[in-house]
Design goal:
- The chain has five helices and seven strands; from the N terminus they run ββββαααβαβαβ.
- The chain is α+β, with helices and mostly antiparallel strands.
- A five-stranded mixed β-sheet has the order 4-1-7-5-6. Strands 2-3 form a two-stranded antiparallel sheet.
- The N and C termini lie close together (12 Å).
- The structure holds magnesium ion (MG).
């Protein structure tokens, strides 16, 4: 069934510590936290990369960009997106839409969602109406609810463009 669409799912979570801002969906959000991560710790971009990889059964982000590799230290996750999109396994596929859930008690993200959608549209080559970004708190419970971490879930749909 070579012409059937493909769907992919991704998830990521990173710990928070005291700091001056976090990168989420390619947007810097000023807040009294930072993300503990080897790269810039952008949970949305990491979840989306895993969703793309999953849609073509090409492994996961950790296999492609090991966090033991010093080259990825502090790396802008937009570079991971570009590298994943350029993988040969994704040649002949085009992204139809993406959808994201962000789960964060802090920072509050409501005012940043329009900028996140614009940045994701740019990074993934999509029209704005094919980019969904939802944000929610964790109702004050669990590690996310107590501001020790933030997380993201992502889904992508791919359609055949060639072959
Ligand atoms: Mg990550």
């Amino acid at each position: 069934m070579p012409n059937h669409p493909r769907i992919g799912i991704g998830y990521d979570i990173h710990r928070l510590e005291a700091g001056d801002g976090v990168m989420i969906a390619g947007v810097r959000v000023p807040c009294p936290y930072r993300v503990v991560a080897h790269s810039d710790g952008d949970v949305v971009l990491h979840a989306l990369c895993d969703a793309l990889l999953g849609a073509v059964a090409a492994g996961d982000l950790g296999e492609h960009f090991p966090d033991t590799d010093a080259a990825h230290r502090g790396r802008d996750s937009a570079e991971f997106v570009a590298a994943v999109r350029a993988l040969p396994q994704l040649a002949g596929w085009s992204l139809v839409n993406l959808d994201v859930n962000i789960i964060a008690q802090a920072p509050r993200l409501g005012e940043h969602k329009p900028a996140m959608r614009r940045r994701l549209a740019e990074l993934f080559g999509l029209p704005l109406d094919a980019v969904g970004v939802k944000a929610r708190t964790n109702e004050g419970v669990d590690a996310i609810g107590t501001r020790q971490a933030l997380a993201a879930q992502a889904v992508v749909l791919l359609a055949r463009t060639a072959g």
